[in-house]
Amino acid sequence: MKMEGTYQVSAPRQIVYEQLLNPEKLAQALPGCEKLAPNPDGSYHAEMKVGIAAIKGSYHGRVEILDPVPHESFRIKVDGQGKGGFLKGEGALALADADSGTGTTIQYSGEAQVGGVFAAVGQRMIQAATKQILQQFFQTFAKQLQ
User: Please, which residues bridge with residue 133 across strands?
Assistant: First the structure.
């Protein structure tokens, strides 16, 4: 499953970058996230509750930040599992000053694989749910920056 898009945030690029790497802010903005705690190796331990249609479950996993370029970009790698299956994915975020001259444009792209019970609900439903989760995340994240 592929995902990509852009989102405008009315905050300077430096602040947006720093907050995107702040585990407390991310945990507060990410729907269903119950825990995002640093590991000794620099990665993060994540715990989430996710639901798509009638299928709901708790998941735990590892989140890694790769190739950080301060105030410009980074890649993220996610590996999670739970009773309902697994999720593996990688994505990239790039930040740029907004065309309007104020704020920041966040461009994201990535690919994910899901398996188990969640995969049974179908690709279209998973993509729609992922799009909704991303939209909720960016809306909450933007509000946190105001």
Answer: none
Residue 101: left (phi > 0), alpha (psi -120 to 50), or beta?
A: left
Q: Could you please state the CATH topology (level 3) that the domain comprising 2-145 is classified under.
A: Alpha-D-Glucose-1,6-Bisphosphate; Chain A, domain 4 (3.30.530)
Q: Residue 142: which of 110, 108, 105 has the closest Cα? A: 105
Closest alpha carbon to 110 in 48, 53, 66? 66
pLDDT in tens, 72-125: 999 999 999 988 788 899 999 999 999 877 899 999 999 988 888 767 776 777
Count of C-beta atoms within a 10 Å radius of residue 35: 12
* Residue whose entry in the numeric block shows the structure tokens 């899901």: 114
Q: For the segment 48-58, what is each residue's pLDDT rounded down to a tens digit? A: 988 776 677 88
